[in-house]
Please model this.
Amino acid sequence: MTSKELKELFAKTYGKGGEIGTYFAPGRVNLIGEHTDYNGGHVFPCALTIGTYGAIRVREDDVLRFFSVNFPNGGVVTSSIHSLAPGKDTGWANYPKGVVWAFEQKGHPLPSGADILVCGNIPAGSGLSSSASLEVLTGLMLSDSFGLDIPMEELALIGQFSENTFNGMNCGIMDQFASAMGQKDCAIFLDTNTLEYEYAPMKLDGIRVVVTNSNVKHSLVTSEYNTRRRQCEQALTELQEVVDIPSLGALTTEMFDFLAPSISDPVIRKRAKHAVYENRRTIDAVDALKAGNIELFGKLMNASHVSLRDDFEVSCREMDVLAEEAWKIDGCLGSRITGGGFGGCTVSLVKEDAIDAFISQVGAAYTKRTGLKADFYVVDIGQGAHAIL
Ligand code: GLA
Model:
């Protein structure tokens, strides 16, 4: 979408005139390192070229107005910079509202209101982080338009804070970080304990990242997610009785195996095992990538799926079918559920010359076994959030 198109949509909604800024923030796909980001572990996501576009014009009063091209029936949602509070309203506009509120909480109160229009092209419920992209987009629009100059990493943290406190989803930092900090053709190897990161080139010779949308999103995603997070915290508390660690991510797999009996509940023990082993797999996968060993990277992706299915229990039948069918394809190096779980997408590494077979065979088998239709995207890795000129 171009700046001109966005400005036209904006003028149609709010009227012409004034200075209108136009922006984009991407969604993300995570290659490996799932449910590690709230355990002080590593993640390896990349920004997509799909995401959320936005246009903004600063107002002189304290009124806030929001309009989403994706939810036209919701009309223009009106609020004020002084009347925002968690838990007051529902609906899509709670994401940008949460970010305005979080700006104030984090020491960046807005001097006045603004009119905001957004338009996203991430498939709904796909788990490709449409909410994080909306949060990062809002943060960047506000920071830029009000001359606040907030660094991108801080915008990611503000987005996460607002989602945790305003929207009640206890997410980690991965999605917002990927949306804010993504770099074209690279994945981000992020240590969520320190927020140190490095970019790893993902333009692989003859191999592409394929995202498969199950078109399934089971309810309870947020509540199950928050439960997993609590279970990991409980495991950490029990382990801290016997070892001095700040997070599960600080444990090696050997240390975990030795200490695991001190976690009393077997379910909690399985959750912690996933967090520790997935962190190890992520570090090993990035090492393998750097060494040019894509086969090993793919195997670690498969192991990640199995662990998410059996130990963390955030998969579901549809996602297992997609992964199992992908594993059967010659030329598919690895495939796993990506994101929070309970539906959404798988991510696979597929040799270019096997992509057509992958799409037709996995698609047909998925429909045969579930009665559903999957969508396939051969992914381009895009740039993090930015102004569109
Ligand atoms: C969701 C959350 C992320 C992360 C993933 C699982 O996408 O928003 O913070 O925890 O689930 O890896």
Notes: The pocket of alpha-D-galactopyranose is lined by residues 34-35, 37-38, 171-172, 174-175, 339-340 (CB under 6 Å). The longest helix spans residues 266-290. The chain has a mean pLDDT of 97. The chain is about 40% helix and 25% strand.
